[in-house]
Amino acid sequence: MLKNRLGSTISGYDTSLFGRLNIMNIPQIFLTHLEKLEPNANFTGTLPTIKSSTGARYFAKIGSPSERDRYFGEVESLKAMDKAAPGLSPRVFASGVVDNESSTGRPYFLSEYKDFGHLTSRAADVLATRLATQLHGYKSSKGFGFHVPTYCGPTRQDNGWYESWQDCYTEMIASLLGKLKQKARYNDLCSKGEEVRKT
């Protein structure tokens, strides 16, 4: 336990000026959701990491208005991965748009924080098995693909649903290569990509 200059006990930061200042660094949209998840906890940190007085950690971020569809794609992807292989990817607790009434609203999401460090050989084997059997073995009733656009770095990947993996892959690669060609800097990569796509 620590004592502040006035002699009052600081426990879990909840009675200290320090704790109140740390909470002030966390945007209210996250505090609202965190207080529902852990009603009796205190929260500290700066984005993107928020720590609870219970020891839990959260990943939180807010984007710019131009990133709304990126955030939506990331959230939907994380949810799909969690459905296919529970616990493998961070669970999303909340997402949306700050100031949703406005077209200038900023996207946000709050998820579980996963601290991936060095993997032992055994852990790497378990991860590889789960990726192969659960994540990549998951079958959607809609076929192959995804229901919202996602991004490969800064490049938007238009998605959709296809009857076969071959059709899905062919269309996704064609879309990505088409966007790279428009940038006129990736001609060699695009040529190799077209060769792969046609085989």
Give a verbal description of the structure.
There is one protein chain. This protein has 199 residues and is of the alpha+beta class. It has two domains: 1-114, Phosphorylase Kinase, domain 1; 139-199, no CATH class. 40% of the residues lie in helices and 21% in strands. The protein has a five-stranded antiparallel beta sheet with strand order 3-4-5-7-6, with helices on both faces. Helix 5 (165-182) runs antiparallel to helix 6 (187-198). The longest helix is centred in the C-terminal third of the chain and has 18 residues, at 165-182. The protein starts with a strand and ends with a helix. Residues 1-21 have low confidence and may be disordered.
Protein topology:
Elements: E1 2-3, E2 9-10, H1 17-24, H2 28-37, E3 43-46, E4 49-52, E5 57-62, H3 68-84, E6 92-98, E7 106-112, H4 121-135, E8 144-145, E9 150-152, E10 155-157, E11 161-162, H5 165-182, H6 187-198
Helix pairs in contact: 5-6
Q: What characteristic shape results from the CA principal axes?
A: globular
| Beta strands, count | 11
Radius of gyration: 22 Å
Q: What portion of the residues fall into strands of 2 or more residues?
A: 15-25%
CATH class of the largest domain: Alpha Beta
Q: Spell the H/E element sequence.
A: EEHHEEEHEEHEEEEHH
The CATH superfamily of the largest domain is Phosphorylase Kinase, domain 1
The tally of domains stands at 2
CATH architecture of the largest domain: 2-Layer Sandwich
